[in-house]
From TrEMBL:
It comes from Sphingomonas spermidinifaciens. Gene3D superfamilies: 3.30.70.270, PAS domain. One of its GO terms (cellular component) is plasma membrane. The chain crosses the membrane at residues 33-52, 59-83, 89-107, 119-143, 163-181, 193-210, 239-261, 273-291. InterPro entries: Diguanylate_Cyclase, GGDEF_dom, MASE1, Nucleotide_cyclase, PAS, PAS-assoc_C, PAS-like_dom_sf, PAS_4. It comes from the Bacteria. Its EC number is 2.7.7.65. GO terms for biological process: cell adhesion involved in single-species biofilm formation; negative regulation of bacterial-type flagellum-dependent cell motility. This is diguanylate cyclase.
Amino acid sequence: MARSDVRSLTGSKALLVFGAVYAAAIGFSLLTRFGGGVACMWLATGVLAPLLAKLPPRLWWRVGVAAMSVSGILTATAGLGPIAALPLAPLNFAEAAIVALALRRFAPVNDGALRSIGQVAVVIGGGVLAAGVSGLPAAFVAAQVTPTDVWSNWFNWTTGHSLGTIALAPIGLLLLSGDLGRWWAEAAAKERLEAAILAAVVTLVAMVTFTQSSRPLLFLPLLPVVLTTFRLGRVGAAVSTLILSAIAILFTLRGAGPIALMPPDPAMRVHFVQFYLATVVLTVLPAAADLRRRKDVLRRLEASEARYRLVTENASDVVLTLDPDGLIRFVSPSIEGLGDYRVAALVGTPAVHLLAPEYRAAAARAHLDALRHPGTSQVVEVETRPDAEGVQRWIEMRMRAIESGAAHDPLELVCAIRDVSKRKSVEAELQRAARTDPLTGLANRRLFNDALDLVLDRVRRDNQAMACIAIFDIDHFKRVNDAFGHDAGDRVLARFAEVAARVTRAKDLVARLGGEEFGLVLPGAGREEAHAICDRLRTEFAGAAMVLDDGSYVWSTVSAGIAALGPDDTRADAMRVADAALYAAKRAGRDRLVLAA
């Protein structure tokens, strides 16, 4: 509670107002002292407990002094006398304090009154418990100063105090929390008119019910009270029960109303009317609190949905909502940025139709995994189907199953789609760069080794498979660098790569192993075919003169060693045999091939 609110509740004028209301409640209750014992109806706790619940305990002493003074004076002059007033005044205050402490501990009202069923339960339970506890010493005191017994006094005290608290405390909480005033200030003219009409209907029906004594019409006021509760919420529940309570108590005390049909025992009639009113309160207040909770949840849901739609309609990522069968229920407008898609045309269609056929199975598996494990995200990267221009995009799909709230489809799938084509392109370029020689554009040694391992594995698994490798080395390459410069040497290496790419087969792999050394993997080639391919490469390279910038010509030759791959060979074995054949070619005069035995 704000400091200004605390001052307003504890100032002199406020205490005078409280004292007047508290005195009226006590005075009204003293009219029900049937039989000379304690009153059968006690409304003062319903006034005092809400006030204490709103105040910090350090300020209770001010209200306590005022309450006990008023209670003591009235009890001494119009109640059980001055001897009983001394202990009963603090007992009345202690009872209200118990209810207030229960509210502060278990259901604080600082954020508004009767907003939850728990708060209503604390008012009811706290009222009954406080009345039962305080009633024991009060009944003993009353039995000492009056010719009444302890049991009847305890019953009258507990019943009257608890039922009075249940009936009056809710309206007190609403008034002190300012909820009633805020509702009136914020309500539109139409809502105020409706509230006035409903209050008038409750008043009229209550008057009709309690001004006659010939028919048991106690059920009749429940209809407008429940209607008012559902239309106006907790404010309507509190006001309608207050109107009903005032009319019911007033006419019952005058001997009118349906309760007059009971035996002529005034105490029993007062207890019954309080029980009737408590039943009405127990009927409508929990419903009002639940309606408030539902309204709060609905408001948060509407706000959440508005934020969700704002995000989905303006985000670059695509958001899909799918039913368990994979049909699109909702798609954000950003889908149109992924190709020739239209939102209206996509709703109701299978989401997998957005994908290239070869990736639909992977997306379907992720879909099923998400349904099997609600609340966990499943991520899959797939390619879209080609758009009208033949463009395909890589997308990342994050799927999560959530509760839909529908009985026929309890789960729905939320799928966030992000275009990752640029990342995939960068990854592909990085992967290509990691496996490619930057000068010649040929495969590097790493890719050569991988390709050689694959071919060796195929040869091991298939006795009929054939394959060879060859290692080429440019003859006298150092002389080219020394005579013409390193730029010329680089051009010689690039020239070899051009010739090799032209004369080898599509399935062959040509790689630069380092420096002026190159390797060929020749899958499916026997010794003779491998020799023919390599010799063609050697011949064409030797006859391809390179013209330098100054007009001079550079001729280069290559030597190579060729090795056939066997089922028992390892990569190291194959490379060692091919290297030995290469060195044999160099020793034999260069510009030649040697086929390993």
